[in-house]
Every structure is written in C-alpha cells, then in structure tokens.
Amino acid sequence: MSKKNNGKREVTESGTTFKKITLSAKTDEQREVIKSIKNNEITFIHGLAGTGKSHIATVYGLKELLSCKYKQLIFTRPCKESMGEKLGSLPGDAGDKIAPYMMPLFEILKQYISQKEINNYISEGIIRTIPLAYYRGITFNNSFIVADEFQNTIPEQMRLFLTRFGKNSKIVITGDVRQSDLGCENGMEDAMNRLQGIKGIAFNELSEKSIVRHPIIGDIEARYNSQNIT
Predict the structure, then answer these.
(1) What is the value of pTM for the model shown?
(2) CA distances (Å), origin 217, targets 22, 23, 62
(3) What is the pLDDT of residues 195-206, one digit of tens each?
(4) Is it true that domain 11-226 has CATH number 3.30.450.40?
(5) Strand, coil or helix: what is 207?
C-alpha cells in the first residue's frame, strides 16, 4: 500500500520514503516545453529522436504524481510496430500485450524510483497502461497522461483520445510526425494543424539543438533531412 506522508507518497512495503524528483532542462527549448506543460492542460511535444520528449513527459508526470497533484499516472502508446515489421500476436492479457510498447517509459521511471515501487504503484492502479483500443467510454479524471509516439495514431484515434479528457487532469503528447509508421496521414500532425489557437493547448518543437541522447544523432538527422536517398 502507498500512503500520503505530509502531502507526499511513500511506499510502505519497500520501506522507502518519498524521494524528491527533479526535472532539469538541458536546453532553452526543453525549458520552454516544461513551462508549457505547467501552464496548459494539453501539451504537444514534437521533435527529433533523442531530444528528451518522452523523458520530460514521463518525469514531469512522476514528479506530479509523487507530489499528490494527481491520483494516477497513465501511459499510453499506439501498438504499432516500426517500419511495418510484424511481430505477430503477443501472449497474455492486455497489460502483457502492451508491455513491450511501454518499456521505454518504464525504463525512464526506473532511473528515479525502484522496480519494487513501480510494481506497487501498478498493483494499486496508481500507475496504469491503457491501450488505445480500450478508450471508448473512459474519462480521465485526476490523472496525468503521457501519450507517447502518437505520430502513429490516425486522426480518429487522436480525436477519441483527446475527448477522454476530464477534470483536474493533464495530457502530454509526444512524437515525431516525420517518423510515422502508418504510411498515411497521422493523428498527431492533423491535431497540431487542427487545434491551433485553442486555449489550454500548447505546441512545442524540439530541434537538433535539444538532442541529448548522443550528439551524433544530430548529424544523422541532418543528413537524412538534407538528402533524398534513391
């Protein structure tokens, strides 16, 4: 069981107490993204690989969860294999099937809290993973939702997801519209064009200036963007 301790959560089974989570921007662009998340209900983060999109969204959500600003931290990702690769049917229940797609987000969590803490939060329904296929009829109340790799949604899926938004919640949507695996119009690009000017929705881009994974990624992206390979 988890409980609140002076406004903070502690995990009693593992004997660990609240550990302050800090999220520091490494670039001016990242600083603007963090500011946008703070000041808006829904934030889109579009950017190149390695710019910290998923990291910022996940750690911000964890920090807010442990500060008891939200009752749940929800992760969602389209179950779409990269570049058309087909893995076939995965065994297990819905959680098992979506687990491989959520692994990058949980790897980020493990940099800040232990696996035992993660398992406790999952068992209590405090951290949840929800496939897009199960969104019909859901309302996100008192939740921080991280929607990762959403360039792999179609516009209808994006619409369904966004209209689940409820009271005292916050959504962060991440992706790179240039790396969609759909082969058709993607829901993230459509939403970024369609929803401009709505109060409470912010749009941010992280460029090669914000690549923190490895500096060589910036050179790789620049080469692919500047040359047509035949």
Answers:
(1) 0.81
(2) 26, 23, 27
(3) 999 999 999 999
(4) no
(5) coil
